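[audit] Reproducing an earlier prediction to check determinism. Same input, same settings, fresh worker. If the tokens differ from the archived copy the diff job will pick it up downstream; this log only records the rerun itself.
[audit] input (161 residues):
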Amino acid sequence: MHRNTRLVIFFLAILAGIVTVANLRKTENPEPQVQQTFPTPTPTSDIFAGAVRYDSDECGISLVYPRTHEFMENPEEEGGVQFIRMEHPTETITLSCAKTIKPPDVTADMTLEYTAASVSGILYRGVKDAFIFTNPKNNLEVKIGGVSILLKKVLETLIIE
């Protein structure tokens, strides 16, 4: 056999060994796969750090809202209040109660039954979500509205009084 042929076979054997060892190491220690996440519309920061409790005697509830929000009367709803974040007004939380509350204008597929503080109501999904339920202690309808993730956090703190 020619000398150059032997050298080529020798180098091919070494190359095949290196490739085999590299593949074996890859199967023994697989690289962690990075899970791709997609951004969702959420409040811009952890605004629930250091929250404030709000008691509504009229509605018969209490809830907690972020300290980054300011309490104000809601000019759009009689007797309603809002917790507004001046830097990000889209993160406003609204609260109102009355004998009857007109539900938001959404299609049936944008509503679902939801339970918070052991009371069931309807969650209306849209640009801003709204949860409407009847307070079993005073028979008033209560509406709490806001952006979805922020509203969910507020509803987790809801207490019927």
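[audit] rerun output stored. Observation attached for the diff report: Residues 33-45 have pLDDT under 50 and may be disordered.
[audit] end
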